[in-house]
Here is the input.
Amino acid sequence: MKKMDAVVVSGLRKTYGKTVAVDGLDLRVGCGQVFGMLGPNGAGKTTTVEILVGLRTRDAGEVSVFGMDPARQGREVRSRIGVQLQARGLYPRLTVKETVTLFASFYERTLPVDEVIEQVGLTAKARTVVRALSGGQAQRLGVALAMINDADLVFLDEPTTGLDPQARRSLWDVIRSIRSRGKTVFLTTHYMDEAERLCDNVAVVDHGRVIAFGSPSDLISEHFQEQAIEFSNSIPSVREKFEKLPGVTRTRFSENGATLYTRDVPATMAALMQLATGDGIHIDDVIVRRATLEDVFLKLTGRRIRE
Amino acid sequence: MRTFWQLVLANARDIARDKMSLFWFLLFPVLFILLFGFIFSNEGTPTYDVGIVYESGNPLTEGLVKGAGAVPVFKIHVGDRGSEIQALRKGKRSVVVEAPSQSFAAMTGSGDPLKVHVYYNETEPTARQVLVPVVEQILNEAERQITGRPKVFDVVAEPVQSMDLRMVDFLLSGILAMALMQLGLFGAMRAVSLRERKVLKSLGATPLRRGLLLVSEVVVRMGMALIQTFLIVLIGYVVFHVKILGSWLVLLGAVLLGALTFVSMGYMLAAFPRTEEAGIGLVQVVQFPMMFLSGIFFPVEIMPSFLRPVVNAMPLSYLADLLRQIMVAAPPEYSMATDIAVLGGWAVVSFLVAARFWRWE
Here is the structure.
């Protein structure tokens, strides 16, 4: 028997007044994976999550979570999922442990409170009141609340936003541990590297639509056979010379730098060095790297994800 | 049930750890009672300083001291003529009485009435109007005893309950009503704050039933109302000796009804503003007129008649009246049935408006 998909969305639409937040969005999330919804702020990620957990109504389209419609069976859906909301509000004067205990009382089956607090690394802060937590600690508390009912599907809306690199990494470990228990994680992020390292599948969204869907490596190789050469250079007049270098298929220029996508790194590099030494064109900070999801987004939208 | 108690516990903890709200709900009404109680408890019955020019051996002077001493509002001072008149001039006496110094035998012998001089403070209006006749009355009584004339009338003073109502009694029940109003109105602003901080939203992402959340909030408010009542009644009893005349059970019912009415009104007001600050502004607009026009600090009768319709529309007028009747058996402003009906009406209407316009986010 084919395993049921955790989330299926088709043709989802939601407008706020004249603003179209979600504009015909389609998604399919299989069980047991970390799924990432990747896109810039305002792409409709949070709205989609809030519709999926039954906090908002949709204007059009079909939505199913474990085969149920969150708009009609909200309580059943919410009892089978865990949710961490972006900018989640909690009782400011309850401690971490009291908060987790309170949320545990909303579900029939829960994990032990102390165990969940331990998993998100807040054991030392268990007796601290919520409003005294740092941003990262509050985010981890939010994740703990999403994990408390040991749900088969956990929604995490921008879980690592505002965290320092170390805190982000430790939260990634928590997310991987949820997956290792056979659960599905549905997360939204605007960090390309996060999606690339953490997610089994990503949907790249922009302006309320999915513009690319697949595993990060498939997406990259689908759009780029090339590798990228990056360097800083602030003279616009020489851009044409870079475009004509051997092997270069695409170029990107910003105010003080350039990215060349090439099928033949040695040939392009040799020619680039020739330009620098022979013609005296100043280039600096040269990096050769493989293409990333950031490059995919750039290729598809013409914009960087955080601009 | 476990969910419900966890919610009650969470709410109670969150409120109890908020020092500002503890001040407003517990300390503020207590300070009010102490402040106003002490201001008004001295004013209860005025006393007058009465000076008597004393001449030892003069039976009339002795009789005067005895007679005036029996008047409860008189504070008797005795001294020679010079010092008593001096005290009167300094405003330390309201009246000074000087009896004639002739011997008793000479007094009764002559046909002319003896002159008793009563000096009074001209700037004190009550001295002429009240004190001089009282002194005359004392002398009449003295004369009757001397001449042995039988008494025709005897005045028997009979206290009636309403006359016994002190200012403190009046205030205490009023302040309890005020405290319940503030508990309900300001308490509901917590819901605005929870909405503003997206606490309601994050609870909405769980299978928790929202009705249960609301019920737990109301239950916590009721508990706080009972604590407030206990505290206010206790301080009234210990500090100002205000005894609860009515039944405790009836008082409990009235307190819960009052708290429910104002919690309902609070949620009605909480339905509209987006921020806690705007909500508190709105509550101030509603509670301030009620505080001063509902007979909390002074009786409704002394207010100008054009304000009466406003007074009659305010639920606090009825709660104060109801509590006053139950606690200190005050004369009713409205009938108890009217009080209960109006409070219940406000509760129901507010609840319906709140339910209609309530937003969770």
In short: Chain A is about 35% helix and 30% strand. The first helix of chain A runs from residue 45 to 52. Chain A touches chain B through 27 residues (CB under 8 Å). Chain A has a mean pLDDT of 90.
